[in-house]
Amino acid sequence: MYRQKQMALGKIIRVLMVTTEWPSDNIPSAVPFLVRDVDLLRKHNLIVDVLHFTGGKNPYNYLRATLQVMKKLRLVKYNVVHAQWGQSAIPVFFSSLPLITTFRGSDLFGITNKNGNYTLMGALLKLVSKVVAIRSDYVILVSNRMLPLVSKKRNVTVLPSGINLNLFSPGSKDEARKKLQIDPIKKVILFGGDINRPDKRYHLARKAKEILDLDLPVELLTAKVDHSEMPIFYRAADVLLMTSKHEGSPNMVKEALACNLPVVSVDVGDVKERINGLPGCFICESDNPEEIARALKSSLTYDNIDFNFRNTVLELNEDILIIKQVDIYKQVIDQS
To answer: Both 237 and 98 in a single domain?
Structure first.
């Protein structure tokens, strides 16, 4: 304990980051926000080791990860363990080191099947996450909507993932559409998420487009590219559409606003508080495709096309939020 505090005072903080999500050969562009988070921590002179394992709903994978963690902790003296998502804390549950857990959405809301319905495995994950929250020395939630889902009252804070405001900035729509070979006149809706994930409910976006096409022909744009290439998609679009079953704090919404792109969304995560009162932005209170289509039409035909949403997300600058994260590390170490 004394050594941990001395290291913290000497500005040498060693963090073991444990996560079930990390880039791989199959998905090289996975969790860009987490990769960026680790990079920023290292730029602030923290030593961060990432232990990635694939849970895959397989108890053996968690047992193997636990053994990996035990070996890692014998070899390296860490100050704190930071688990990303509730399930990632299972291998470090019985560690004596201070534990910080960040809950990001599905760990507290549940998992959906291909039909978009919550599963029994998702219910188990929610239960595990609630136990992990109690065990954790500090809990980070990415949106206020998640606060009622954890019973912990002390050492809990809402800290959304930050965004790179240098990367995500307004730009020429004409140039973006030229690069993407998109009709310069047609109205374009950018879908907010991976079309192959059931919880993103791409079918709602398709249905809303079909309804909208009867009155206002549109193009539904999807993007499965490296995160660094996303700005051109935001610039090329006329509106971002989110139809997710649940979200924590969707970065696509924050990035869209940084690029001055209006947002239409069902009421998930912290989207309502992000876009409330912004011109051309609308929250759909239901997942009815007809309501979504009406909201899209209202946004796409909004009178004022000179939007300036960027100022609303300046506080989400990743350089600001990473300092808050480092302060949490120091607080937890000092209290241990």
So the answer is: no
pTM: 0.91
Q: Are 48 and 100 in contact (CB under 8 A)?
A: no
pLDDT at 281 over 90: yes
Per DSSP (E only), the strands in the chain are 14-19, 47-52, 80-84, 99-103, 138-141, 156-158, 187-191, 218-221, 239-242, 263-266, 282-284
HEC letters along 45-112:
CCEEEEEECCCCCCHHHHHHHHHHHHHHHHHCCCCEEEEECHHHHHHHCCCCCCEEEEECCHHHHCCE
Does residue 9 surpass a pLDDT of 90?
no
Q: CATH number for the domain including 18?
A: 3.40.50.2000
Domain count across the chain: 2
| Residue 8 pLDDT greater than 60, yes or no | no
